[in-house]
Specification:
The structure is a homodimer of 747-residue chains.
Chain A: E1 16-22, E2 28-34, H1 36-40, E3 44-48, E4 73-74, E5 80-86, H2 89-98, E6 100-105, H3 112-116, E7 131-139, H4 142-148, E8 151-158, E9 171-176, E10 182-186, H5 191-201, E11 209-213, H6 229-240, E12 244-247, H7 250-256, E13 259-260, E14 263-271, E15 277-289, H8 295-304, E16 315-323, E17 329-330, H9 337-355, H10 359-366, H11 385-395, H12 398-403, E18 411-423, E19 435-441, E20 447-451, H13 460-472, E21 479-482, H14 500-527, E22 534-536, E23 542-544, E24 550-551, H15 553-561, E25 569-575, E26 594-606, E27 612-622, H16 629-648, E28 654-655, E29 658-659, E30 678-682, H17 705-717, H18 728-746
Parallel strand pairs in A: 1-12, 10-11, 13-17, 15-16, 20-21, 27-30
Antiparallel strand pairs in A: 1-5, 2-4, 2-6, 3-5, 7-16, 8-14, 9-10, 9-12, 14-15, 18-26, 19-20, 19-25, 22-23, 23-24, 26-27, 28-29
């Protein structure tokens, strides 16, 4: 309806507009900055350099390695160097052209190979070998298990970096309020973590910062805490004492957002001839770009999450996160799961072919079961994994179609299968993963609820509204959820790790049931009824069972105020999942429960052009229970399409470390014409602790399309693409290589 | 510092500006309205008449007798007839000039005498005798008591209407938000009652309205729920679907605010020769103007509150609230107490003189005591009444100065005394008079508190901040009180009846102590300490008594989140006073406790000009305990000056029912040059249920200056002025009459 207010829509009296001058070099020393001409431009109110920014280092994750504005050195092309505030966006951008920065270009490390060269300079002083983070673990006895395996297979996969592609680029309005607090209205997945980060980076007490989420036009992991936008907006507001709006244009958003982490994964699996996985050894080299952000946490997920799908007890991992002089990478929907699952699902397909097995059988035979504890100590409460595989294969007539001859035409079809799991929350930010919901009843029976978790389009607010309406037996329109604001909302971690349905959903149920119990006690007294005789009435309120003696929510709300010891009706409850923080060896049941899924795709490969067309997709999603079928179908489809983009089209192109395709014309996301009709079902496993049995949806759906497509390409034309994206060039080259290989064999 | 944001300062994108065309006639039929020329003016977005307004009647009090825009009939000069919204305030006002309204003037009832004439037409159809409200009670046996009294004295007093004179005229910004709710930012003393009223008048559910208080530049009772400003702003926003700002200019504010209720009080008291009051009979005719508003509640207070100062058990009251075709009157600081206390204190002075007693002795001999239950069932928990009288008289050397000869010069001096009581809350809006305070701890130990009571300059927010800071042993700067907003704040009645210090203050203490108890339990665990060994630390936090083992509030706040079953630290508590709703005979202990006060003034009367100059004032205020001495001194001084204005200068002048002096040049409020150095003390009775012993301040201070001045004028020149204001003309006329009387007597 066009009514939603995004942060960029805000107009605050006296508001200035910000703009940022960015480094054109991947690595350079800042020799000098001359801001005088920019400052002299009428309408310009501030021109700030690194000298005007705090000396505190900030970081989206635990590693603090970045300044709000570069000091002395720039480490990637796009890094924030000078910030301007002016009375209009045009003037601010004009001022950028008047700033003279003298750089001394330094050698840039543009690949992890260059960065890991023992002779290479360091991206950050003191960061030996340019390693930002390491993850190493070994459980069971991997070498012994490989020795006993019937088939050991090793291959290396590479994944490219994906831009989140939300329609709303990052934007903030920051204002120093009358009480000297910095108020930031912004596009975010988390108000509390954003507040803590802004406060720390700007050297303010947490209580001196207020963050209000505005309608957020997509996040996909990119709006957690890795942007510099909120910090520059805040800095400009502090220095000018005027409200400042800072809106990335699309190119700026490409340059400054955290795209997904590219990984090189060398995977070695051992299997019995029956397809039982007995050992896994993996080496990961992940590229965080110039600043670590959340990339270490992403690599953590790549390292271990998918191990928990299977019963295999022998796993070893050596993962290194490496700094390069490229734009930073970080959190992205799927959070590292996609990278490893591309390798793992491709690998299973390859090994199944080697062993003459149906890959579906391998998933079936290795699947972790409900009640099992995994190799990493995860407790599986419910799983529809086998059912998802069965559904996804049955839906495409898997066995029959796979058995049919592929033909010899120019265009050949193939089927691919992949499977995945995801968490529903993650107790890894500290020893809490809970959520709090507060409920008030207005005098007309209207329900006002507060929850600090953010909706960035995934439907969290609708889901909570549904739960509350359901618990009170009222229409959705009677429930209003207030937007997250650090002043008014209870403390909340925010929307990531697919945690909101689980934690906030359960908190909402708990708060509603507390409220209902309170209403029943109140009604007992007012209706002079026996406790056991009362029940919640349809449409809200309480009635004596089987009679028309009834009090509406409005009457109860008023009666709760207007009495001795009365007060406005309010209830607050928190639900914290029964999970544990992983120990120093990363062992521990960090998620309350897990979502599983499987996906089959059918592709057609044009053997003359190398073009891969996805003809069909079927995704079977164990989300516990579909609370909002329309919304979760949308999430499944959206995740699937985003994964198809990553698999086939999307790729940040760097030239000398500079993003060369930072716009929607050149950075080709999947469009309607490249997407077939998508099919999906829900496997409702009715999780024992999920709200009404629900688990997470959405993130699971992005994890499988890439390997399913790669597997289908192999199925169609017999070539294995292990490097994303699966471009026509790569397919053609592989077909050519295969032809030469066959020719050589025949010769 | 100029940083506070008033509602008039708000600039909302797309905001229109409203303006109102008002009736020039005191009473007329609206024959026709031609809005076509106004609508054609470029920039005009809406021109609304009564036909565009809801048919629901609204009223500030229980009587609903008013439309948002007049329908068919206007009942006072100034009534809202047409509302315009335009892109600028200038255009909106220009448009008013283009509207053609044809009126048929009707006979106007401009005085209560005219309105009470049995032959008079009715101001409202069906309102027999133009009586809007009646209060009648009789306790004890008044006639029998009069029969036994040594002195029975009767006289009639009239009081004039006072404009509240806040510096910020009434203003609202209303906006239909994305969720179709009407958001009203306004200058108000109560967000919850404003919301309920706006919703009802605009025929919306309560939950579809949100009210946010902006910084409020004075209220003095005039910003409770009697304005039409919020309603017209809301109507314009609903009809235009654009934000609308509606700011009264000063004349409009004079025309449309509720000025204080003028009363004619015929008071008859019986006393023994020792000055013991044995019977009181009072008749009140109060003028509510064209619409009843809260004037009935004001008259209720006039009728009975001051009875509770004394032990007299025989009281009778016949009070009538009468409609006239004059601008409405209603709530005003002191809320009806001022009117009756003018009569009562004047009367006591007269009778004391008749009996040859010191009036101070009369207060002393009749004073209600702590532990007493009054004639109306009020339970007196604490009283410094006698001490206040003793202090106020001692401070001016009362006995000696009164005994000294008055001299015969042109300018003669005199002393006057008056005393008063006031409530600290009032359980008369329904069976609740409580308040709720919610407290959150941020991760840095900052405290965020929410309370829905409004600060309109009286210092409520500072008082609550002080209490919370004191309870947590932290500096004031560590506590932030959020401004009242119906979405985020707990339900609260608002700021009137001097209820906030008592109810919200106690709720704040209760919430803090709950929070402290919770912190101690948490710290026991974290510090592994015995329960008895812990105490609150200075600067916040918890320590093991006598050691340096200590956890700061920041550490405790974080530890409260980061643990199994953790959550953000939050506590909500309500305090509802142990009072009762008055019964149908208006009997019952409606207030938790009571403030008492006495005041002496010294005046100089110029016998040639009639000019009365106040030379000194001493106010002794039993406020229980001064929580913020600077603020309550300010309140005492402000109340005293406002009362001096009412006593000597202020008077709405009506010509044909039209306010003729609706500006600060012609409506003469007391200015610095007319006010002497004001002295005041606090009698700290340490009330048993007040927060830290505190009771209400502020309203008590406005109740005494008028009678104290009238009594001082009598003391100075021997004339009794029973009609306010005590203008030079009235004094001169009285002196003249006295001279003639003396002449006649001498002749």
């Amino acid at each position: 309806m066009g009514r939603a207010k995004y942060a960029g829509d805000l107009k605050v009296p006296g508001m200035l507009h910000g703009a940022i001058l960015r480094s054109p070099y991947a690595h350079a020393r800042i020799v000098s900055i001359d801001t005088s001409a920019a400052l002299a431009l009428p309408g310009v109110r501030a021109v700030l350099t690194g000298d005007d920014a705090p000396n505190t280092l900030w970081g989206g994750g635990p590693v603090k390695d970045r300044y709000i504005l570069a000091k002395k050195v720039v480490r990637f092309a796009g890094e924030e160097v000078v910030a301007v505030a002016a009375i209009s966006e045009d003037i601010a951008r004009d001022a950028l052209d008047l700033i003279r920065v003298e750089y001394e270009e330094l050698p840039a490390l543009l690949t992890t190979d260059e960065a890991m060269d023992p002779e290479a300079p360091t991206v950050h002083p003191g960061r030996k070998d340019n390693v930002a983070h390491e993850i190493r673990f070994h459980r069971g006895d991997v070498d012994a298990a490989f020795a006993k395996a019937d088939l050991v297979y090793e291959a290396t996969y590479t994944t490219s970096s994906q831009y989140p592609g939300y329609l709303e680029p990052m934007v903030s309005v920051a204002s120093l309020e009358a009480d000297d607090r910095l108020h930031v209205w912004t596009s975010t997945q988390t108000v509390s973590l954003a507040r803590a980060r802004i406060a720390k980076a700007l050297e303010l007490p947490i209580s001196s910062v207020r963050v209000s989420q505005q309608t957020t036009g997509g996040g996909f992991g990119g709006k957690i805490v890795e942007d510099d936008n909120q910090l520059v907006a805040g800095l400009l507001a502090l220095r000018t004492r005027r409200p400042v709006r800072l809106l990335n244009n699309r190119l700026e958003d490409f340059l400054s957002c955290c795209t997904s982490v590219p990984e090189r994964i060398t995977l070695k699996l051992g299997m019995t001839r029956e397809g039982i996985i007995v050992a896994k050894d993996v080496r990961i080299v992940a590229d965080c770009g110039a600043y670590a952000g959340l990339a270490g946490e992403v690599m953590h997920v790549s390292s271990m999450r998918s191990d928990n799908m299977f019963r295999n007890a022998n796993v070893r991992c050596d993962a290194e996160l490496v700094y390069t002089n490229t734009p930073p990478h970080g959190a992205f929907r799927g959070f590292g799961g996609s990278q490893m699952l591309f390798a793992l699902n491709s690998h299973i397909d390859s090994m199944a072919r080697e062993l003459g097995l149906d890959p579906a059988a391998i998933y079936e035979r290795n699947a972790i079961g409900a009640g099992d504890t995994t190799v990493h100590g995860w407790k599986i409460r419910s799983t529809g994994f086998k059912q998802c595989v069965a559904n996804a294969t049955a839906a495409v007539d898997w066995a029959a179609k796979r058995a049919a001859p592929r033909g010899t035409g120019v265009r050949r079809r193939g089927l691919g299968l992949a499977a995945a799991m995801h968490v529903c929350g993650n107790r890894t930010m500290g020893n809490w993963d809970g959520s709090t919901v507060a409920i008030k009843l207005n005098e007309d029976g209207g329900i006002v609820a507060q929850c600090g978790e953010c909706d960035m389009g995934q439907g969290a607010m609708t889901m909570l509204t549904q739960i509350i309406a359901n618990e009170f037996k009222v229409p959705l329109s009677q429930v209003r959820l207030m937007p997250p604001d650090t002043d008014s909302a209870p403390y909340a971690l925010g929307s990531f790790a697919s945690r909101v349905t689980m934690s906030a959903g359960n908190a909402a149920i708990k708060a509603c049931r507390s409220a209902r119990a309170k209403l029943l006690v109140l009604a007992e007294d007012l209706l002079q009824a026996d406790p056991g005789s009362l029940e919640l009435a349809d449409g809200g309120g309480v009635q004596v069972r089987g009679t028309d003696r009834r009090l509406g929510l409005d009457e109860l709300a008023r009666a709760h105020i207007w009495r001795h010891g009365g007060e406005g009706f309010q209830v607050t409850e928190t639900w914290d999942p029964p999970t544990e923080e992983p120990d120093s060896d990363l062992y521990g049941n960090c998620a309350p429960t897990h979502s599983f899924a499987a996906q089959t795709v059918e592709v057609e490969v044009d053997t003359e052009t190398g073009q891969v067309t996805v003809l069909g997709s079927y995704l079977s999603d164990d989300l516990g229970k579909a609370l909002n079928p329309t919304a979760v179908h949308g999430q499944a489809n959206g995740g699937c399409v985003q994964a198809m983009g990553w698999a086939l089209y999307e790729q940040l192109k760097l030239e000398d470390g500079r993003i060369a395709n930072g716009n929607f014309a050149d950075y080709t996301m999947a469009t309607a014409e490249s997407v077939p009709l998508l099919h999906a079902d829900f496997v409702e496993t009715n999780d024992p602790i999920g709200p009404y049995g629900a688990k997470a949806s959405s993130e699971t759906a992005i994890l499988m399309a890439a390997p399913a497509i790669a597997n289908a390409v192999y199925d169609a034309v017999g070539v294995r693409i292990r490097d994303l994206p699966i471009t026509p060039e790569r397919v053609l080259a592989a077909l050519q290589a295969k032809k030469e290989q066959q020719g050589a064999a025949n010769a």
